[in-house]
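Components:
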Amino acid sequence: MSRGMGSTLAAPAQTAHHRDAVGAKLGMWLFLFTELLLFGGLFLLYAVYRTRFPSDFHFAATTLDPLVGTVNTLILLTSSLTMVLAVAALERGRRRAAQAFLAATMALGALFLANKASEWAAKIGHGLFPRSGLLLDRTDGENLFYGLYYGMTGLHALHVLVGLGILAVIWGLLARGPRRGGEAAAERGTERLGSEAAAERGTERLGSEAAAERGIQLENAGLYWHLVDVVWIYLFPLFYLIS
Amino acid sequence: MEQRPLNGYGTYLLVWSALVVLTAVTVTVAGLHLARWSALAAILVATIKGSLVLLYFMHLRREAAIIKVSLLVALLTWTVTLALTFADVAFR
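Structure:
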């Protein structure tokens, strides 16, 4: 913190554009903790009811296809890889590579949602949904299993959807990054060679100001995406692999 | 801003490979039907996978101490809630 303030004092021209990378990161993590406890509460509910109705949970889980779950797990894990590669590419100033990795992440996220949607559609087609006539004739434990299945994977899918929106916004910011960053740096007449050189080179590299800001945004979006991946890492065995 | 060490692309590929292998492990172990040990094994493997994502993909390794400590507090809070819930449910 004090180091950050020191560098601000050393370059007074920058105070108007002061960024606090550590603060931005900490803020994102604080939000992630609330997400962790939101899903944590649901996992708690799952744990209590599974210990209470173990055989019902095992029986109900036989309708879930482990293959679909495994494929979706691999899709989401790979999307986490492309996400972190996007961050790594931008750290090295490779904006276009970062955009390409980001696009791959979004494509994989969309694929995950498409699989999830077809899975839900099949379940609902078989009459397996909360308060359906079929389920009302079954045991309490089975009803709880399907309630938790729809509730937890549904909330998770909603998070993937929100993540896709965030990534799309970041992709758009990256797409127009160099013009804004480069021009802004040139207009301010900043004496730092880095950003002027960047403005001259124009297309490939971001101005250093904009680059730092995009870097923080991209990394925070990545943190959210990875957290959603971590939640799925637990959801997968607890729902698909217990039959 | 302080200089942070950068991970190479290779590190991330390696972590991803480990995650894929662990996914295969958890599917295989579940197929063995080890009764009550199945759930424990599944949670154990998931925790290893989650830790890999946190440490490498979410860069927790190179993060400030305050973030690591905060995460531990959040996880501890959840664990205490879990313990208290089961203490309640078990003796009802």
